[in-house]
């Protein structure tokens, strides 16, 4: 057993861990980055990037099929599943190579391979080869897919996102369980790529939406193209021959059907990789799920006696917002404070922003209306503005005129506080709104910003004007065309 002593140990060489490493190195040369699995990060290997590559192929197929609506004939759209997966893996590997190249810039002594766990509050056992003592420690161990026991019936036909991106060819059929962000992104993409897909959820939730109006609108819109049952009644899941047999109540007919699928894809959430860290040995205060108590602005954990700990936690492991940009921000703050300890500093956290790459896209910015009502003292404190994309000029032009957006602001101050968006190319509008929220802009000020014509963002202006009217800070919209041009 090797014995080593370092200033700062970072557990996990994912996006949060790498970000922490770069910050920590500004304070000390004695920083070690420990990785127990494969290098390359979840984002590049099995997360953001390969999923977006699959979605991009699906978009190409969809556009080809939809071309007829413009009077452009594209006959016989055929999907070459092997070619789709070959491109996906080729580009995915290039993204992973990029991460590996930056990993290689960390010298050999700065890297340690093996699964880490706490032996005591300052000591980690890495694999069965190294006992590592560290002055401060950053936990950046990410998360992994989780699913209910009932899926065991699918046997080896049960797959998760990691498996999808290793396929050499597209399968014939997939039952997607989970109508959250991952299930909808992958389910819709596979469906558009010619795979027979059914998507099953529980409790009615669709993607990230908290607003019932958006949830219902999205449910209806997605079902125009795919089978999505967010409140599915699934009676049994069994491995049969080479397939998985699923008995369920069909949403529209109410009939009990048994259908066979090549795979069951579990997209039912992720759990933090903290259960095998022996956190009890670290002396940390843990919640009932075993997640350390952490200060959101310093990423510093607390000890069981409520004193501040020398342990920090970042990224998916912290169970805050399991998103890439959050992992990087949190890793930076945690690495900075691990280096400065005990003189920790409050880090800059951005406003919440999530974008889901379905078509239409989904996004949430800031807080939901319910959260805002709680925070600001009841429903009377918050105004909602709305716009629908069915008649919006640019959306009609590109034949993507489905969508509904809702924006929230505070009465009195008129300050913009949050939004839920469902609509075409909403990723850009989501950024405008997140940036406005960062700048603490009020709705009148946002309306003073330039809007080009004809663009999707004119739909945002309509929602802002509606919001301003409801805040009683502006006149109602009377004649849209006369004021702004056709299709505002
Ligand atoms: C399919 C999919 C699509 C996604 N799409 C998006 C998207 O479009 N946009 C977005 O913002 N986010 C997206 N995400 C989320 C995003 O990928 C994650 O939030 C982000 O990658 C988390 O980074 P991390 O550093 O916390 O974890 P990771 O990158 O998973 O790093 C954790 C590392 O810790 C290692 N480790 C774990 N335990 C130990 C241990 N005990 N000892 C040593 N090493 C250990 C692991 O092997 C791993 O390498 C997606 C996720 C998935 C699954
Ligand atoms: N575009 C993006 O940013 C993006 C894309 C994909 C994944 N991600 C990340 O990955 C994480 C995990 O995504 P996810 O969709 O797995 O989690 P999620 O928590 O968003 O959704 C899980 C869904 O599964 C449903 N569910 C739970 N048990 C079920 C069951 N037995 N049967 C059917 N449905 C069930 C839940 O009701 C929920 O809707 C996300 O939190 C997100 O951070 C992000």
Automatic annotation (TrEMBL):
It comes from Halomonas korlensis. Belongs to the class-I pyridine nucleotide-disulfide oxidoreductase family. GO terms for molecular function: flavin adenine dinucleotide binding; NAD(P)H dehydrogenase (quinone) activity. Binds 1 FAD per subunit. Its cofactor is FAD. Residues 355-462 form the Pyridine nucleotide-disulphide oxidoreductase dimerisation domain. It comes from the Bacteria. The keyword Glycoprotein does not apply. FAD binds at residues 52, 141-143, 316. NCBIfam families: PRK06292.1-1. This is Dihydrolipoamide dehydrogenase. Pfam families: Pyr_redox_2 (PF07992), Pyr_redox_dim (PF02852). The keyword Transmembrane helix does not apply. The active site is at 453 (proton acceptor). Residues 7-331 form the FAD/NAD(P)-binding domain. Disulfide bonds join 43-48. Keywords: FAD, Flavoprotein, NAD, Nucleotide-binding. InterPro entries: FAD/NAD-bd_sf, FAD/NAD-binding_dom, FAD/NAD-linked_Rdtase_dimer_sf, Mn/Fe_SOD_N_sf, Pyr_nuc-diS_OxRdtase, Pyr_nucl-diS_OxRdtase_dimer. NAD(+) binds at residues 178-185, 269.
